[in-house]
Amino acid sequence: MKQTFFYLTIAAMCSFGLSAQAQDTSSTEAQASDAPATQAQTTETADTPKTEEEYPVADENQEPLPGQVYLRETHGVWEVRCIKAAEDAEEGTKELCRLYQLLNDEQGIDVAEVNIQRLPDGGAAAAGVDFASPLGSLLSADVLMRIDSAKAKRYRYSRCDQYGCFARFGLTGKELTNLKKGSNAHLTIVAYAAPKTPIKLTMSLKGFTAAWNSVAP
């Protein structure tokens, strides 16, 4: 509704602007020949930016600030996003990095996000996954994920807030290896408003191995 209102407002403004311009042109046409040429030149100069300072461009080489998330590199469809370490951090301190991918449904609409990060050695899980889906997700349906043609596994949602609903789960070393060798992971979620129509998402694994190796300890 807001988007429709926005476009209607823009259309109305454009229409109003054209109408006003036409009225102004007809009413001042007779006087235009009498106006000195310097007046038009003065108006044009006043409406034209004098320097680039009024329209600054972003510095492509600007370094991220400490604590800021930034895109470090890309491998295939995977982005490696890291948190910039503090300037006074001890030498050898590694940045916290995650592998990120935006997931689309079968119509190509952005639906969910997935972040994968390394976990400390020695635990049952080798990687931690943070999955985010829209508000209105049916929590009791959980999140289903399978790698290629393997059997799907079920992961529970942990919470929802004003930004969406979230599931956090771990992947074993074997599952991580399957991600590296696989082509696609298939996830399924369900909307509360349409419980009989599952939403199928495809997580491409193109570039996953290279992205994962880039955050190796």
Topology:
Blueprint: H1 2-32, H2 37-47, E1 69-75, E2 78-83, E3 97-104, E4 110-118, E5 127-133, E6 143-147, E7 153-155, E8 157-161, E9 164-171, H3 173-181, E10 184-191, E11 194-204, H4 208-214
Antiparallel strand pairs: 1-2, 2-3, 3-4, 4-5, 5-9, 6-7, 6-10, 8-9, 10-11
Strand order of the largest sheet: 1-2-3-4-5-9-8
Mean pLDDT: 80
Biggest sheet details: 7 strands, antiparallel
Helix content: 25-40%
Total DSSP helices: 4
Our Rg estimate from Cα atoms comes to 27 Å
Instruction: Write the CATH homologous superfamily of the domain at 102-209.
Output: Invasion associated locus B (IalB) protein
CATH-defined architecture of the domain at 102-209: Sandwich
Q: Give the low-pLDDT segments.
A: 1-33
Oligomer: single chain
Structural class: alpha+beta
CATH topology of the domain at 102-209: Immunoglobulin-like
Q: What gap, in angstroms, lies between the N and C termini?
A: 48 Å
- Approximately what portion of the residues adopt beta-strand conformation? 35-45%
> Strand tally, please?
11
**CATH structural class of the domain at 102-209:** Mainly Beta
Order of helices and strands: HHEEEEEEEEEHEEH
**Could you say which overall geometry the principal axes of the C-alpha atoms support?**
globular
